Amino acid sequence: MSQELAAVAEAGAAAVVAAMATEVWQSTRAGLLRLFHRGDEERRAALAAQLDNNAALVEAAAAPDEVRRAVLAYWSGELTALLRADSSRRQAVAQLSAEVAAALPKERGAGVFQQTNTAHDLGTVLAVQQGDLHASRRAASAPSPGTGRPSGR
After folding, report:
1. pLDDT, tens only, 95-148
2. Which of 16, 84, 118, 129 sits 20 to 30 Å CA-CA off 74?
């Protein structure tokens, strides 16, 4: 999948979760379900139930933005799969994102994030957006006394 389609999917997911528990939720929900109109009805019903459950979690949460961040990955995955199966829906996803962003108050708008990470000279980049990253590195074995070589096998 191209980086452009991945960015469109991410922006669409950000718009959907930003709209949860707001005055534009019902129109956003309907717009998202229209994107999945070519799928089977059982799958569409499951997506509708997931949307409703996620929106209810956001509405009931003491910290709604934390719940939004938690469900963002799910909706990004769904939209990525949709665009992977049918890239012609790219414009519809982008349009939904733009409509939601325009309808939400500016402080609640769906943010579109861009990140560029570059590693040079055997460097390593560990990066994440809207989530957590837990990384650890196993320590190298110490050299054996007198050999100058690691003691591990």
Report:
1. 999 999 999 887 554 444 556 677 778 888 777 665 566 677 776 665 656 665
2. 118
127 and 30 Cβ atoms separated by less than 8 Å: no
Query: % helix / strand / coil in the chain, to the nearest 5?
Result: 60, 0, 40
H helix intervals, 2-61? 3-19, 25-35, 41-60
Contact partners, residue 86, CB within 8 Å, separation at least 6:
38
Q: What is the pTM of this model?
A: 0.68
For residue 37, give the nearest of 77, 82, 96 by alpha carbon: 82
Residue 94, amino acid: A
Query: How many other C-beta atoms can be found within 10 angstroms of the C-beta atom of residue 82?
Result: 23
